[in-house]
Amino acid sequence: MFLINCPYCGERDQSEFSCGGEAHIIRPKQPTELSDDQWAEYLFMRKNIKGVQFERWNHAHGCRKWFNMVRDTSNDKIHAVYKMGEKPPVE
Amino acid sequence: MKNKYSIFSLIKNAFSQHENWKQAWSDPEPKREYEAIIIGGGGHGLATAYYLAKKHNMRNIAVLEKGWIGGGNTGRNTTIIRSNYLWDASAGLYDHALKIWENLSQELNYNIMFSQRGVMNLAHNLQDVRDLKRRTHANRLNGIDAVWLDTDQVKEFCPIINTSPDIRYPVLGGTLQRRAGTARHDAVAWGYARGANEMGVDIIQNCEVKGIKRNGDQVEGVETSKGFIKTKKIGVVAAGHSSVIANMAGLKLPLESKPLQALVSEPVKPIIDTVVMSNAVHAYVSQSDKGELVIGAGTDAYISYTQRGSHDVVEGTLKAILELYPIFSRMKMLRQWGGIVDICPDASPIISKTNIKGLYFNCGWGTGGFKATPGSGDLFAHTIANDEPHKLNAAFNLNRFVSGDLVDEHGAAAVAH
Hints:
A: 37% strand, B: alpha/beta, eight-stranded mixed β-sheet, 10 helices, 24% strand
């Protein structure tokens, strides 16, 4: 439970948001040429990091816009929030 | 058995004020090398060690636990045991476990307080009714006891449920598995630890794994807070922290770790003599032997290793509990806690080899691993000892995420995720 600073609406309760999981997983450009292993990697395999993680969030009960967030999953501290398409911050 | 527990040992020890009971398991320093190492001293890990020693004669093995045994999800779950899963593979897996539960106290000479008080799953809409009836038929074809109850029968079986048709999510019926029930979760870990230790297994607590050493495709040992330990076989049973261990070996798993919460009330006189679960409104409740209501909430919908969980999740669960059981409206809650559960995309576990030789994973149990503890240990021990799966866990391999042969049990997993 924590507050999230939505880049469009400002600080709101986490319960207004939904998490879209690990960020910067790029959809394959040529899906027809992918092997089963590559599909499994894209669809299912996750880093599931304990520590600083890049992830996607959606302000579901607000502006309904997607954005990215850098959060430490071991203590739920948020390090950065940035819009879709923006470059991820370097630590 | 060296220190057999019996009525006679109880009487004998009563004369010395119960001060001379022998330690149930020893507390050794790790040796330099083991035939196999189990990472994680919860119920599943200790059961794995027990069956490796008992059935596969591997006695030079160790269980490494970063905290104390049974202090993770084994001590945090709501102790529910059932096997009413939809697919054949799951039915085989969970009923294998249930059959072991039925004689486990005798086998371990340790009272795990297994109580077959029945588990009832409620239906609140027409789709629930169809799904649960289908599951009942599937269960019976697999030899698992399951019956469909209509609303009146639900009320008869558990009279405190509000079956009024004008509540927000009315009770339209439910399924009942009478062989299902609960067990004392700590006792399961302690019983397996005692049994394994008696056969020579080293149980090493406060020993955190920091790294996994590989030589090419073969594991060579583990780096721990108590030094390097050599081994050729590593079984990882680290629940919510499985991905952390996998990352040490350079492996990715299809898991996401999330906090799952539970809470207990103040103790009251016996009021509910079964386990009632409701998937649709997300509330399940039973009563412990101490008289506390044991209530399971849902998972937070984001990755976190904090072992807490959000307040709004508990609030949602308690709203549902109050609508189904208005009689609990003035109960006070005593304790609330969270555990980190490792959730697979298909809500089924992984008991599998990996593409690294000597590295095995038993993970992905998500929100419902406790019920499978003995079966999981037995099958994982088989997989480690023979370097190939038992027929009951063959479907639960890591490769299913490549082949697409998933075992989708989202409907039978009691916690929506």
